[in-house]
Amino acid sequence: MKKTLRTIMMVLIIVSLSACAMEESGDKEPINSSSPSERQSQPDTKNKPDDDFNEKQDSEDQSPDNTQNGDQTSVDENQNQTGEQNNSNPSNQENNDSSGSANAAPKDVVDDHTSVEAVINKQRQLPSGYKPSDLTVPEVPFYFEQFLPKKQMREEAASHLENLFSAASKQGLDLVAASGYRSYERQKQIYQSNVEAYGEERANQFSAQPGHSEHQTGLAMDVTVAQVSFKLVQEFGNTDEGDWLANHAHNYGFIIRYPKGKEDITGYNYEPWHLRYVGKEAATEIYNHKQTLEEYFGLVPEE
Ligand SMILES: [Zn+2]
């Protein structure tokens, strides 16, 4: 009898230990396949979706095939010690500006990477050491309980996100936050583990180089909803929540950063879940003109 009890205890301990290990490695090594069938074979995905799966779905961690070429090369070329060169070289930006915008006179691009209007994309990167000084956890529902750095946003963005969530909630919409701030180091780990697992060439097809993720600004938040199993998938755009966001997020200073049909301009696939705080004025103008942040600043790639 005692022996049986001990055996049961041992089994329980082993099970709980391996569950912990899974969560740990899940957060640190997002190199698993994004295939839904593989994901389903993992335990505990019903209540708590796999972080890695979600983050891999966010193409800020990826480089969609169709936008792959050229960009990665120029990233390598621009990858100086700090990465600040790219942000602080006015002549480069003026060249980009000359391509112009269809709808409105483009604004002067903001070179201060701490500005809420900072443009971070495949051409423009953040300094490697940059971490916003005012990160905080917005009081909104998350799909996971525990504290993780990705719960954070910069203060101004966080308080506006709270307003957005509360307005959505009054409409009976149940948004859930999934992923906000992501450090340069974390992005580097993600990228490097992908290089180790798949080789550099293949990793470059879906994993962004560190410094180029908008999540490092602390101004982005990926959101989702139970209807799509808390995944970051394009179907989110067809939900009531996704539809409401597309038409109301600007009232709270947010834009859908990677809209449908603008893939060539943003460099990313359509991401109805990726909210970027830019302030109400810019967000409203971008919404009214059906623009992207690039177009707003006249940073449209030359054809
Ligand atoms: Zn995102």
From TrEMBL:
Residues 23-109 are annotated as: Disordered. One of its GO terms (biological process) is proteolysis. One of its GO terms (molecular function) is carboxypeptidase activity. Residues 1-21 form the signal peptide. Pfam families: VanY (PF02557). Residues 31-44, 64-83 have a biased composition (Polar residues). This is D-alanyl-D-alanine carboxypeptidase family protein. Residues 45-59 have a biased composition (Basic and acidic residues). Transmembrane segments: none annotated. Gene3D superfamilies: 3.30.1380.10. Residues 84-99 have a biased composition (Low complexity). Residues 151-280 form the D-alanyl-D-alanine carboxypeptidase-like core domain. It comes from the Bacteria. It comes from Pontibacillus yanchengensis. InterPro entries: DD-CPase-like (IPR052179), VanY-like_core_dom (IPR003709), VanY/YodJ_core_dom (IPR058193), Zn_M74/Hedgehog-like (IPR009045). Keywords: Carboxypeptidase, Hydrolase, Protease, Signal. The keyword Disulfide bond does not apply.
